[in-house]
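Q: Could you predict the 3D structure of chitinase?
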Amino acid sequence: MSTYTVVSGDSMWAISHARGITLEALAAANPQVSDTSQIEVGQVLNIPGGNAPAHSAPASAANVPPPQQAVTLMSGGVPPPAPAAAAVQHSLPPPVGPSPGSEGFRTVGYFTNWGTYERNYHPMDIPGNHITHILYSFANVKPDSGEVYLSDVGADLQKHYPNDPEEPGENVYGCIKQLYLVKKHYRHLKTLLSIGGWTYSANFPAPASTPTGRQTFARTAVQLLADLGFDGIDIDWEYPKDEAEAHNFVLLLEETRRALDNYSAQHAQGRRLLLTVAVPCGKKNYGLLRMAEMDKYLDFWNLMSYDFAGGWDKIAGHMANMFPSGNVPDSTPFNADEAITAYVAGRVHPKKIVFGLPLYGRAFEQTDGPGHPCQGVGEGSWAPGIWDYKALPRPGSEEVNDHDLMASWSYDRTARKMISYDTPEIAVAKADYIRQRGMGGGMWWELSGDAPVGSERSLIAKTVERLGGVGNLDHSENLLDYPASRYENLRKGFQ
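A: Sure. Here are the predicted structure tokens for chitinase:
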């Protein structure tokens, strides 16, 4: 846990969102603050982080003991408007069309609304030629009713970017407008509203257990799609904990698919709107899923094939290995190949499975390497022990590729520090695996962590190149017409 000293103009809300954590998580780490609306200049606050899985609001782990659940600020009201974005508006590269005989691989990227703060990563930074689907993360769910709502209206709807006009009427700005403009430029780029994630998943079980809750969830999720210009809905429930919840998950998908189809019949000329899920690699969790029943309603499955090891462990391990280690089994508590085989056995076609790839690394300190004891995680890019891929390897570290495990890491012998992450060589090997197994493509958590796609170190660019290049990706067209949107400028396509 790191610390932060309050300066003039700070608020608990601004500090929490700048660091990609919830207000409640920040408050829980600072019990000395009795009123979160009042903090003093010079006050030292504890900043939590480091042990949460990747799909937290700031990844998803297989069988990891959950951190304390947190709810977002939005349940009680609207936060103050976010400050104007520091991002510089820039022109987007021209779109590249499909190649003859394209295999149509999906390349799916998580875009986080909290990434627009300290990370300074904005919709216009999305490498549009290399990405076919954006999962905009995360919306939350009210556990008492099932209503789906935005987790940060400041970043999502209110932030004014350069050249955003002040217009009369009810209009939308923020990331939602920018995301629409990006998909308007790249007509193959589909956008989905991702609901849940690790932090908000405790809010799924109650509404999913009743017909009224499921109907409210589906109706409000599709209303957000209609208002905000999305092409689909992604549900990231981590994870149904028993047979009853697994059954309710199927019913939730059924209701959501029905609502999507009804909306499409009325407002989108019957075109297919997307419904996807994020799913685990831990057997304890995927073993409960009713895969064949779920698959009837889904367009594809996003496999969270990372976070197999991390700060919750006492043994340094690989966090995104493809295969288990026979020599050092403690270094591979989970593996992706076994999970993929299980999903296919559960009657999910490989082409519908999108393989998850990390754009970050997890650190282990005071260790002799994979399979050895460790103590602590040290610092990170934005949270303890978690490094953006683009910041790796750290100075003084040597990169190691293990092609038998399809895993890689860096090791600093002097500091005795290991960081588990994918190198370009392992990214290429995983792309080969995707093709050999006939899978649907790759998915990245999350986009801000990669090196620029024009560089030799970009994992996204290396993967896309190995899959046959940008012309070999899915070029099905996105939707731009949203006649039922509440926002006037979006209804007009931001003309």
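Q: Anything worth pointing out?
A: The chain has a mean pLDDT of 90.
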